[in-house]
Design goal:
By secondary structure, the chain is α+β, with helices and mostly antiparallel strands. Strands 1, 2, 3, 4, 5 and 6 form a six-stranded antiparallel β-sheet that branches. Strands 7, 8, 9, 10, 11 and 12 form a six-stranded antiparallel β-sheet that branches. The protein contains eleven helices and twelve strands. Strand 1 and strand 2 form a beta hairpin. The relative contact order is 0.10. The radius of gyration is 26 Å and the shape is elongated.
Length: 297
């Protein structure tokens, strides 16, 4: 078998090697007939892989000729992997990423047709033909996008729910944030939730703009004012924010945490990026902050 090796991180390489071994085992009969299998990273999504099964140019192959070899492979693939893009890597939801489909290219056809994998496993009618074999002739390649089943089923169900990133999702996320940051909300802090992002500021948008206008009107250079009344200190909020983000990470996937502010009394206003663990450990967090922004999946 041919294995196309991309630039993987260590964890990705392990997952890719596991998938390679899996394909070598269950597609051995095809590779003996000069088919080649390539494993590559799908786009830039970590943990998401594309399996490409290429036919030899000298072979003229229909579905009926290979179905007894492909169906067992698809059955085992379904048991051991999830189809589509790894859900915790998505920044935006797209229904097609959940499709259990295989893309099949045919000789003389300039496009690939996506066919439901369950239909192929059951050898059901496809595209109005009596059997898939009546339509799928001269197969040149097949492609499937998968990710490892390393999430428990209930977590995976939540992450792949089509209602995610909808109005209901935003309302649920907003209620969660306001409940777990109640002390800061009572002190006048403003929480904003949009799609799958959350931000925390000292004032709401209207008051923030009023203060900004007043500072600009006084001729101040806004980016050099560390005592801007809209700024707040990390030490004043961390006892509320750290438990909040810890609880949040148990129900949602947290990406990078961005804090906009000043690293010292002499520094310029800048963006500071932290991992979730750095925030939990209170690891060298910027002391004076204008806003906190984080992405949530």
């Amino acid at each position: 078998m041919k294995y196309l090796k991309s630039i993987f991180e260590s964890s990705e390489l392990s997952d890719a090697n596991d998938l390679q071994d899996f394909c070598e085992m269950y597609l051995a009969y095809l590779t003996d007939e000069d088919w080649e299998v390539e494993i590559s990273v799908e786009h830039s999504f970590r943990k998401t892989f594309r399996i490409t099964i290429n036919n030899s140019p000298k072979n003229i192959t229909s579905w009926d000729q290979i179905k007894d070899k492909i169906i067992p492979f698809l059955e085992m693939l379904k048991k051991n992997y999830n189809f589509g893009v790894y859900p915790e890597q998505r920044f935006n939801f797209h229904k097609s990423w959940l499709d259990k489909s295989i893309s099949i290219s045919l000789a003389g056809n300039n496009r690939s047709d996506s066919i439901n994998i369950d239909e192929l496993i059951e050898d059901k009618p496809t595209y109005g033909y009596a059997r898939p074999g009546k339509y799928l002739k001269d197969i040149t390649s097949m492609e499937i996008v998968v990710h490892p089943k390393d999430l428990n089923e209930s977590r995976h169900e939540v992450l792949t729910n089509p209602k995610r990133f909808t109005f209901e999702f935003q309302e649920e996320l907003k209620d969660f944030c306001e409940t777990h940051l109640a002390y800061l909300v009572d002190d006048g802090y403003s929480i904003r939730v949009a799609t799958n992002t959350m931000s925390l500021k000292r004032f709401d948008e209207q008051n923030d703009n009023q203060i900004y206008d007043s500072l600009i009107g006084s001729g101040e250079n806004i980016e050099d004012i560390i005592d801007d009344p809209r700024n707040f200190k990390w030490d004043n909020i961390k006892n509320s924010f750290i438990p909040f983000i810890q609880h949040l990470s148990k129900q949602y996937n947290i990406g990078k945490v961005y804090m906009y502010g000043y690293t010292s009394t002499t520094s310029e206003f800048m963006s500071n990026t932290y991992t979730l663990q750095q925030v939990l450990d209170d690891d060298n967090i910027v002391p004076v902050i204008y806003s906190i922004f984080l992405r949530i999946d």
